[in-house]
Amino acid sequence: MDYITxxxxxxxxxxxxxxxxEKAGIHFSEFHDESRKLVVFDDExxxxxxxxxxxxxxxxxxxxxxDIGIIGKDTILEDPRDVYELLDLGIGKCKLAVAGFPGTxxxxxxxxxxxxKYPNAAKDYFDKKGIRTELxxxxxxxxxxxxxxMSDVIVDIVETGSTLKENGLVVLETIRDISAxxxxxxxxxxxxxxxxxxxxxDLKVALEVxx
Length: 211
Ligand code: PRP
Known about the structure:
The protein has helices at 12-23, 57-63, 73-78, 119-128, 144-147, 162-166, 186-191, 193-210; strands at 4-8, 39-42, 47-51, 68-72, 84-88, 94-100, 111-116, 132-137, 153-158, 170-178, 180-184. It has 211 residues and is α/β, with parallel strands linked by helices. It folds into 2 domains: 4-92 and 179-209, 3-Layer(aba) Sandwich (D-Maltodextrin-Binding Protein, domain 2); 94-178, D-Maltodextrin-Binding Protein, domain 2, CATH 3.40.190.10. Strands 2-3-1-4-11-5 form a 6-stranded mixed beta sheet, with helices on both faces. It has a 5-stranded mixed beta sheet with strand order 8-7-9-6-10. The longest helix has 18 residues, at 193-210. 1-O-pyrophosphono-5-O-phosphono-alpha-D-ribofuranose binds at residues 140-143, 156-163. Belongs to the ATP phosphoribosyltransferase family. Short subfamily. Its EC number is 2.4.2.17.
C-alpha cells in the first residue's frame, strides 16, 4: 500500500495532534520528544509523518509533497493556499487579536502602525474596518514592538494571555478564534480518496473520545 504523507511542525500543536493520532490508532514508534528525526513512519497503517516549519506546512501540501497537513488556522489565513481544509481538530486553540497598551484607541480617523507575524491577516482586518495602517512584519517577540515604540499595536496569537500580561499589554480587539486544521492536497484527495476519508473518519472518532 502507498504511504500517506502527513506534514506538521514540531511543538505544542504537534504534541497534541500526536496524542489524537494515537487515539486514532496511528502510532509513530520512532518518535520521541528529544528526537531530531524529520521523518517517522507508522508502517502498520502506511503513514509517513514529516516535520517541517509551521509556515511551510501549507506549501508542502499544496505542492503534493505531503498529502495531508496539520496546521493552525492562523497560518492558513496569513498565506491562503489551493488546498482543501477538511477538519477542525479543536486543538491548539487560541485567538488572533489586536493588542496594545490599555486604553489604546483604534478608530477610522487615525493611522496605525501594526507589528505582526501575520501582516496579511492584520491588513485585511484593518482594511475592512477602514483603518489605514503601516504593517511591520516581525517573526517573533511581537509584544516588544509597542514597548519600544516601534508600533502602536500588535496583531498576534493569544493563548493563555501571559505574554501580554507580563509585558503590560492587553487584548484590544479579538479578530477570530484559531485552532489546528487538517488540510489536504487536492490531487491526493482525488486519487487516494478512500484512504484520506478513512484517516479523517478515524480522527473524528478520536476527537469525540478526546472531548
Ligand atoms: C506566541 C505568540 C505570543 C505567545 C502567546 O509566541 O506570538 O507571543 O505565543 O502565548 P500566551 O498567550 O500563552 O502567552 P511563541 O511562543 O510562538 O514565540 P515567538 O515570540 O518566538 O513567536
